[in-house]
Each structure stands twice: as structure tokens, then as C-alpha cells.
Amino acid sequence: LYEKVIAAGNSIPALIRDHLQTLPLANFAVLRVIVEILHRTAMNSDINKMDAEKLAAAFSPVLIWPDPSEKPAPITTEVKETDALKSEDTADESPIELTYEQRVSLDLPAVASVIRDLIDSYEALFNPEEYFVP
Fold first, then answer.
1. Cβ proximity of 112 and 65 under 8 Å
2. More confident: 1 or 50
3. Contact at 8 Å (CB) between 114 and 60?
4. What is the DSSP string of 14-38?
5. How far is CA 121 from CA 38, 76, 128, 129, in A?
6. Is 114 in a helix, a strand, or coil?
7. Average pLDDT, stretch 65-80?
8. Taking the complete model, does pTM exceed 0.85, yes or no?
9. What does DSSP assign to residue 130?
10. Lower Cβ count inside 10 Å, N or C end of the chain?
């Protein structure tokens, strides 16, 4: 689910709604309550100074993370050698192996974006009347 959420990028909330439905009921209920609290907090940002973006930055590392038992897929990036290293300007695309911590750190902006969208779209994603958990 982590990889799908990260890949979703800006296709929120439709894609996220589909993935939320795949969560076990207990996980969904806990996530719904957490996002509701964050949504209500953001609604009072004029008083508490915590808008959805700030809340997402603070809570994203503890709400969504990759499975530590899965090896992160290598990423390919364009690396240009400087003139100081080589006389001609060449580009080399080579896979870079990331540690778990590097992958989490690299994905933080995307994760925060997803959490911000969950907070902003709380009522559309979690229809409070439909998913009421006593």
C-alpha cells in the first residue's frame, strides 16, 4: 500500500479512497479518527496556527511508512560530472541503492502531501455519517 500511496502523487482523493477500502476495518477506523482529529485541528488553524500542511509535516512520518522487511527499489537519477572531474560534460544514469532510512527520508514530501490531502478531504474520503464507529 505504501508504494501505491507514494505513486498516487496528485491523484488524491479518488485513488486514496480506493486504497482506504482495502485497509482492515480496525486500521481504517483508527486512521479515520486520527484524520478527523487532524481535520478539526486544521479547521481551527486561525487560533492554533496548525494548518493541514503543518499537521501533515508533523504527523506524516508516523502515519505512513514502507514495510521495513521489503528492500527499497533502486532509483535511477541523472548524475552529471563536473568539469573539474572530467573535461567533457556527460550524463550517467545509474541505479542508486537506498537504505530504508534514506528511502523514508526521500519519500517524506510525497507522504506529507498525501496526509495533507487526507486532512483537507476528510469529509469526502471518510463520510462521517457513513463510517461512524461508536
1. no
2. 50
3. yes
4. HHHHHHHTTS-HHHHHHHHHHHHHH
5. 11, 33, 12, 15
6. helix
7. 63
8. no
9. T
10. C
Look up cell 537504505; give the residue.
99
* 133 SS3 class: coil
Matching residue, cell 499537521: 55
Kindly tell me if the per-residue pLDDT of 24 is higher than 50: yes
C-alpha cell at 28: 481504517
User: Which residues are CB-neighbours of 90 under 8 A, at least 6 positions away?
Assistant: 80, 81
Residue found under cell 481504517: 28
Of the chain, the end-to-end C-alpha distance in Å amounts to 27
The least confident of 36-40, 53-57, 101-105 is 101-105
Type of residue at 101: E
Joined together, the cell numbers standing for residue 84 give 573539474
**How does pLDDT run across 94-127, given as a tens digit for each residue?**
667 777 777 777 778 888 888 998 999 898 888 7
Taken in order 15, 128, 107, 67, the sign of the CA dihedral is: negative
